[in-house]
Amino acid sequence: MQLSRNRKRGALQGRIVHWLFFACAAMSVITTFGIVASLLRESLGFFGEIPVWEFLFGTTWSPILKDAEGNRHYGVLPLVSGTLLVASIAAAVAVPAGLAIAIYLSEYAPDKVRRLIKPILEVLAGIPTVVYGYFALTFVTPLLRSIPIQVFREDLIVYNALSAGLVMGLMIIPMVSSLSEDAMVAVPRSLRHAAYALGGTRLEVSLRIVVPAAFSGIVASFILAFSRAIGETMLVTIAAGATPRLTFNPIESIQTMTAFIVQLAHGETPHGSLEYNTIFAVGLLLFAFTLGMNVLGHFLVRRFREEY
Amino acid sequence: MTTTEATATDTTLSVTGLDMYYGSFRALRDINLEVTRNSVTALIGPSGSGKSTLLRCFNRMNDLIPGARVEGQVLFNGEDIYHPSIDPTEIRLRVGMVFQKPNPFPKSIYDNVAFGLRINGFRGNMDEAVERSLRRAALWDEVKDRLKASGLTLSGGQQQRLCIARAVAVQPDVILMDEPASALDPISTLAIEDLMRELSRDYTIVVVTHNMQQAARVSDWTAFMTMGEDRAGYLVEVGDTHQIFTNPRDERTEGYITGRFG
Amino acid sequence: MARAEITALLNPRLAVRKRIGTVAYVIFIAAILIGLAGLASLLLRVLWQGAPWLSLHFLTDYPSRFAEQAGMKSAIFGTVWIMGLTGLFTVPVGVGAAVYLEEYAPKNWFTRIVEVNISNLAGVPSIVYGLLGLAVFVQILALGRTVVAGALTMSLLVMPIVIIASREAIRAVPSTYREASYGLGATKFQTVKDVVLPHALPGIMTGTILAMSRAIGEAAPMIAISALVFLTFIPTDPLDEFTVMPVQIYNWVRDPRPEFHGLAAAGIIVLLAVLLSMNAVAIYIRNRTQKRSEE
Ligand SMILES: Nc1ncnc2c1ncn2[C@@H]1O[C@H](COP(=O)(O)OP(=O)(O)OP(=O)(O)O)[C@@H](O)[C@H]1O
Ligand SMILES: [Mg+2]
């Protein structure tokens, strides 16, 4: 009798605990739901006044300042181009450097060297992004401007896509290198042996066997790093400028989607105003961009894992 | 010079006083062995006696293992393959290898076979070369309609024959095989054995096997290895396969063979 | 075709291939050096510009219009508040979610969604969390731009890190321990509480520290929620306004006057010092448990 009552109480307790843990896990789904719902809700106010196509395909972005005729413009393309410009410069740095580092670490480095270098590179990933912004603005831009070529010495302005992009490249190197290295390390050793046994040099084995075999994992690392670059905020807010401009010229000042959100997100923008809704519309677009790339990246990582 | 030429005619590999270390662990002690050209030599012996290690000494695959080092001499066609002026890459081009588990590259069947030729700057007709190699490996008829398919889509036995075709493509003098059939079903095993016999007309084959019947069936020469108290492997007896299996000189050989047969 | 004819068609050009290999090796090393040089110049730059501005009063004074008098007291206290509350919110929920996924979750579509969802949440840009916080905590829940709104936002941001790390730690607990516990008649909850979690604790702690070091450097979502003006008071309850260290640094960086860049660098030194000590603790915990498990 006593025993069975205890057991019943135990079963009830077990169920409650089960549901508590379940609620914790469900929090993550609720978070996603919250993100999507709040972005949609506030964007709806925006799209009520500005047609979607005008937002997506308009080439002028000036939601705050009026032009000579007194009109504001809500074409997001300049923000998109600014975002892609900086992210592409970053990728141009991080993809080759990160891949080279990954090949070195996975195929060349003795164990001791790998154990020394990996944590040092991880430090790069752990540094807060405001610090990178500071570095780009106060060090890299002046450094570029000291290069005795006219483009740099005279045309490069204080806020520019180039130094933000270069520094962002440095920042995402460890992301590319460690994810690519993971993919390459997972390639079975026996494939390397087969290639060496056919008279391949270390470089040939790395580039013709290991890299192709790890290809989807490597591409995933590029995509995830690019997505990170697109979502990166403080670095571009500090160093790339606040001038929305439809350009792919790296020495110009631009504005990214994230930098625009920061510009209006703080305090003074009244809740419910069109400006306020604008940042959510841009946020929604940003979210869609990064989500798409992340889903693709994770899909590739998983597909790669299934290959072996 | 004359002695080298003389040995070059009938001996492909000649090992003298070979010691091999993994770091401070001595895996092979004082190996002396002559491998006869265009024949099959089987390496047999208990697990851990250093058969694979010795095999890897023949194409310098041990160079890839950190801390591995070799003392003594391995002559390949009279040339010391551990001489400082020798590039291991060159040795591996001429001494091919087939591994225990089939390990085709995750590429097409065609590209698997063409790989060695491509990296070594083959200037002939690639299609012909691929077909010839696949024919040599008795795989052509089974794959000729799907050369573009991934090598991983083949069955285990087919994959192993693909690996043999891949090794044969660059026309090595020697093909080293480390338990090439141990991961395969009996029918595929027989196919590989037939292939070894057939290939031994043109190639020198050294094969490691745990299967005594297989050694007896395919090999012309058999070398028996075992290991000492210090776990260092050494060669007990080498000889004509028939003699080793019917009339071994050493009782350790006899004990091993009868134990394994029984 | 005879074998000699085929061999004659091979042109291995070993010398050339070796030279290409050497060039590639040099390139690989150069890539590493670029990374290391970037890191070194960043750290040196910060030290060089910030060190002269570091002093005790920099830690104990409020921000000011005058660079000489400016300090980051309010930012430091704000960061302490945010970190404290974030830890309080994140750890129980994050570990709970990890326990659910590792110990309870059935293999069904919902579990699968939760898993995919967590890895995708980890990749959502931090500014988007700022917008979420702004819309939900600041506006809908009407918490305003307060410490608690900031901490809730930050919790959601770092939750995936805690969940992922805790799951790994829980997974690493040998299943024999669980079986032994069940064998003694323990319930599932007792097993989790008394066997699994204690053994997973070091891993969970390391993951939590990792999450906190991410949180401590995040400026973007806090800009959307903190007070951007120079605060000259410290929060005394969760419904006060606040600022945090990285936001304070941002304020100094965007000031065009070079003195303020010096202040920014000094602030960065403080921030990096905190991060460094947090990571040192994490590494210490990890090494200690590794040693213990090797014994
Ligand atoms: N990479 C290595 N590093 C260190 N020791 C090794 C390595 N490979 C093999 N050994 C050791 O060398 C000895 C010989 O190993 P080897 O693999 O050559 O034996 P084997 O005769 O091929 O055995 P099996 O029949 O099981 O394949 C063993 O004691 C083994 O532990
Ligand atoms: Mg072996």
Describe this structure in words.
The complex is a heterotrimer of chains A (308), B (262) and C (295). Chain A has helices at residues 2-49, 52-57, 77-108, 111-126, 129-145, 150-155, 161-185, 189-197, 202-213, 215-231, 234-239, 257-265, 274-307, and strands spanning 61-62, 73-74. Chain A is mostly helical and 308 residues long. Chain A has 2 domains: 2-48; 73-304, Orthogonal Bundle (MetI-like fold), CATH 1.10.3720. In chain A, α5 (129-145) crosses α7 (161-185) and α12 crosses α13. With 262 residues, chain B is α/β, with parallel strands linked by helices. In chain B, 39% of the residues lie in helices and 26% in strands. In chain B, the strands form 2 sheets. In chain B, strands 6-7-8-3-9-10 form a 6-stranded mixed beta sheet, with helices on both faces. Chain B is globular, with a radius of gyration of 18 Å. Chains A and C meet through α1, α3, α4, α5 and α7 of A and α2, α4, α5, α6 and α7 of C. The structure holds adenosine-5'-triphosphate and magnesium ion. Adenosine-5'-triphosphate binds next to β2 and α2 of chain B.
Topology, element by element:
The complex is a heterotrimer of chains A (308), B (262) and C (295).
Chain A (H helix, E strand, L loop, with lengths): L1 H48 L2 H6 L3 E2 L10 E2 L2 H32 L2 H16 L2 H17 L4 H6 L5 H25 L3 H9 L4 H12 L1 H17 L2 H6 L17 H9 L8 H34 L1
Chain B lengths: L1 H9 E12 L2 E12 L3 E5 L6 H8 L9 E9 L2 E2 L7 H7 E4 L10 H11 L6 H11 L3 H4 L12 H14 L4 E5 L7 H14 L4 E5 L3 H7 L2 E7 L5 E8 H6 L4 H11 L1
Parallel strand pairs in B: 3-8, 3-9, 6-7, 7-8
Antiparallel strand pairs in B: 1-2, 1-4, 4-5, 9-10
Helix pairs in contact in B: 4-5, 4-7, 5-7, 7-8
Chain C lengths: L2 H7 L4 H37 L5 H5 L12 H32 L4 H13 L4 H15 L6 H25 L3 H9 L4 H30 L2 H4 L21 H9 L4 H37 L1
Helix pairs in contact in C: 2-12, 4-7, 4-9, 4-11, 6-7, 7-9, 8-9, 9-12, 11-12
Bound molecules: adenosine-5'-triphosphate and magnesium ion.
Q: In a nutshell, what does this entry contain?
A:
Chain B is built from eleven helices and ten strands.
Main beta-sheet strand count, sense and barrel state of chain A: 2 strands, antiparallel
Small-molecule binders here are:
adenosine-5'-triphosphate, magnesium ion
Tally of alpha and pi helices of chain B: 11
Alpha-beta classification of chain B? alpha/beta
Name the strands of the widest sheet of chain A in spatial order. 1-2
Mean pLDDT of chain B: 92
